Amino acid sequence: MTLPATISDTGEFLADVKALEAAGAAMIGLEGEGLDQSILMGAIAAVTQRVRLMIAAPDPAAILQQLSRGRVVVGEPDGETWVTIPMPPDKSAWAATLAEHEAAGATGVVVAWDPRLIDLLRNPEPDDRSDLLISTG
Predict the structure, then answer these.
(1) What is the pLDDT of residue 126?
(2) Shortest CA distance to 74 belongs to which of 87, 83, 65, 66?
(3) Are the C-beta atoms of residues 83 and 51 closer than 8 Å to each other?
(4) How many CB atoms lie within 10 A of CB 134?
(5) 3-class secondary structure for the chain?
(6) Residue 39 to residue 6: CA distance in whole angstroms
(7) CB-based burial of residue 128 (10 Å sphere; 0-12 exposed, 13-18 middle, 19+ buried)?
(8) What is the pLDDT of residue 132?
């Protein structure tokens, strides 16, 4: 997940970050690099517990490692392959894309921020629930 390094509403931004973590995102990064990115990544570290935090440059890594309790990775983690993909249009495409990249040996996928991601992470399967039997009385 790559989020923009600029925000218009702090509460909304951090709520989205927490929702992404709760929905199962494995790693969050920010566009660009520099002081703004470092400050925002510190805020992300403070409000998350599990998700790894990807930064471009190692300069702020020491303090971010402390704030995040050891979850910072600089660049792509050793031994892992993360593939950048465009935002899939729907749940079926999301599930197919994940399966395709997993079969090819990718550790995970990186997509630019889109509000639909939270729903896709929480509910990756298509909405077809024909397997459920419904009874009314």
Answers:
(1) 62
(2) 65
(3) no
(4) 5
(5) CEECCCCCCHHHHHHHHHHHHHHCCCEEEECCCCHHHHHHHHHHHHHCCCCEEEECCCCCHHHHHHHCCCCEEECCCCCCCEEECCCCCCHHHHHHHHHHHHHCCCCEEECECCCHHHHHHHCCCCCCCCCCCCCCC
(6) 11
(7) exposed
(8) 46
Pair 51, 20: CB distance under 8 Å: yes
Q: Which two tokens stand for residue 71?
A: 């979850």
Average pLDDT by stretches of 10, the chain with 137 residues: 87 93 93 85 93 84 79 87 92 91 93 88 66 48
N- to C-terminal Cα separation, the chain: 45
Both structure tokens of 102: 């997993």
